[in-house]
Every structure is written in structure tokens, then in C-alpha cells.
């Protein structure tokens, strides 16, 4: 007796269809799973055996052979428990053979209950693309699965419930479509930040154009405070962006089951002890790292020089490409990494180099060694470098609230709208991602602006990449100013954000 049950698998953040073929024959009792299963899939044999018995069914005393097709693609995880069980029950005619337009996934407990699994949204999208009309998932995953409107989602809590549904005794009602409520108000607001007008302006420019930024200042100057409030002025995510972010968080098991769609841009702040694999992704079965979990949001690296040098250097290519590829002997996986990189650091190890108080006693050699931990190629990929000075007493005593995040966000949104209209249809969403052809077209300079940039290029010993980034930042400043042309004042401000000389005053 043979039964076929449709299921799905995961490769990166993309799903793919899997057919579970169940063959029950006479001979010595056995239970074999083939088709490149990993250890978790092989262990499904014992979970399924116990779940069948504890759900009131008789487990066949026969030879059972299960094939997971396509057999040349590795299968991992516990998602195949449910389709394997359905295949065995269908092959022994304890339940009707499932509809060819239906797919099953879920982890089983030994009692026959369904446990939630990761990556359901990606697999729901793959189910729709494969032509499946109905998707059976654990009840805890059902709201997430409904984010793909093309498939009908059936929430399953236990094996007896599913059996009663398939036999027609007690049909299960489809899961209603989950719709997000209004996005929550930002918990952190720039009105709480005293002083630091220049730093706030720089962060506004960075948010408007999607630029990477480095904040340098002494301890307590507000670098972390400023950075953590950056998501409050970023544009709201589109539906497509939210779904992409949700897929990444889903495969890592980071979703809120009651609110499965990620609607707020991510803000990730890993500790400086993080490994390369933790930052960029890795593992025998490649998983996304922090740089992918921050996709469409902010990756904040506090105390930048304290990160291992090889860890920082591993970010160079993902920052340039907007994606990170993890290669293993079994194949390669690509995860998106379209992020805003925000870094913070002290000007020296004690943190007070260049402060008028003169409290820094670091030697120039020690300062240079500290700053030398950040390579030139890494700095080249940072669009803006901003000094964040210590606050004086008068600024700290100021009681009047500063400009709110909502007011700044309005200007950021207006600048982003200009960019989207300009770059429509190109696949580029903001100025920071413009390609060379777009730079030539949209960042043309007048004679005065070109002369100013040439002077800066010579005096600051800028690279070609730095030149392009100045143009992109100038374009963003002009957009915030409501100017169709890049003027000298826009160039001058953009140059200011590249003029900080690390280790030199």
C-alpha cells in the first residue's frame, strides 16, 4: 500500500514543495526514512509511532518505507512529523487519502498533539506558488500562515481532531485571516534627548537616505540614546517589507504568535563578543545572523573598536550587496541584509581624547592603536562620521522638550517620497542604494559644487567610494531641503560628515 502526502521544506527563507511517499509492505517490521533526512527528521519515527498509538489508532506491524521527494534535497527540522503520520494512516486506510491540493506540516508530541514550528510563512508562500489550496498547520501557527491569502489554512490541535476532519465527522473551520492593528507608538522619542542638535540633524539625514553612520564621542554624550531612537523616525514598512522581515524572524522562532506580522522596523544591537557566524549567519544548517535579522531596519554596533577585526571585516560585502551568502558543503543560502548600519565609539580607550577638560591621558600612540582597529575599507562603507560632544551643564538643565520624533519623521517621509518617485521601477528604494548610472543622472553638480568637492577630495585624501557616498548624502540633504538640484551648501554639509579624522584633532 502506498500513500502520498504533500508537505513543504525550507531553504534559507524560501520554501519548496516536498512529497512524502509512504509504502507499507509485508516482511519484518521496520521503519525507514530516506530522502536526505537530518537527525530531527529521522527521530520523527519514534514521535509518530507514539502519537499514532496515543491517538487511538493501531500502528502497523509491517515494513514502512518513507521517501521525502525530491530525494536529492536535504530535509531538516520537525515539520515532517504530521505528513508522515498522515501518510501512514492513509496507507493503512484508517483515514481517506488526502486531497492532492492539500499540504501538511507540523511537529507532534508523543500524545498526538501539534506543536508549533518555525518558518510557516515562507512555507505558506511556497504552498501557494506550488498550487496547493489548503494548508494544515499547528493551531499556534495558523495566524502566521494566513498572512499568505492565497491558501486556506486549517488549524490543527491534535491527531484525533485531524482524523475526524479528514473523515468528515467533525470538519475544522478555516482560520480567519489575521490583520494587524494600528502600529504601536514608538516607545523612544527624540524629545527626550537634550542638546546634540548636530547629531540629531545627522541622524535625520541618515534616516532620510538610508545611510550608514558612525557616532564618535565621550562616555555619556548620548550616542546610544540617539541611536536607539533612530527607528522612531524611519519610514513605516510597506506590506512587502513587513512580510520579508517576518519570514526571517519566523525561521528563527522570534514571532509573537498573537501578532505574527512584524510591522516595526527591526533594531538589533549585538554585543561586541559576537562571532562571525552570529553576526553574518552560519551553522551546519545555515541560519541568519544579526545582520539579516536587522533587514529593513537598524543594526547598531556599540563600542565598535571592541568588535573583533575579522568580525567587522565580514560585514563589508553584505553592506555593499544588501545580502549575505553562506556557503557550506551541502550548498549555499542567501539571506537579505538591507540594513542601516549605526555605530558608536569613544575617541580613545578612556573616552576623553580631545575633550577641553584635558582629562584624557592616552598617548597619541595609544589613540592611534585604538582607532586603528577600524580598517579603511570598513570606514569607506560608512557614509557619515559625526562627533557627539559631551553636554555642558546648561544643556543638561534645559527643561523645554526637544523636537519630537513625529515631527522629524514627517520631514524624513517627505524626502523618502521624493526618492521613491525619482527611483521608481529601478528596484532601489533610497539614495544610499543608488547605482553608478543613477549617480550620474541624479547627482550632477554645478561648477561651484564640483570645485568644492574637488578641494575636499584632495585635502581629505578621499577614495572613489567616499566620493560616491558624499554625492549620495548631498542628494539626500537636497531632498530634505526640497531642492531638485544639489547646491554648494548641500555638498558642504555632506563633506562635513566625511571630514572627521580618526585619532587626529
Mind explaining what this structure looks like?
By secondary structure, the chain is an alpha/beta fold. It folds into two domains: 2-166, 2-Layer Sandwich (Ribosomal Protein S5, domain 2); 190-410, Rossmann fold (3-Layer(aba) Sandwich). The chain has 21 helices and 18 strands. The chain has helices at residues 39-42, 44-54, 81-91, 120-129, 142-145, 159-166, 197-209, 223-228, 239-251, 276-280, 290-293, 309-313, 316-321, 364-371, 376-380, 393-397, 405-422, 436-442, 447-459, 464-480, 488-496, and strands spanning 2-11, 14-25, 30-34, 63-69, 102-104, 107-108, 114-115, 134-138, 152-156, 213-216, 267-268, 281-282, 287-288, 298-302, 323-328, 331-336, 340-345, 384-387. Strands 11-14-17-10-18 form a five-stranded parallel β-sheet. The N and C termini lie far apart (81 Å). The mean pLDDT is 91.
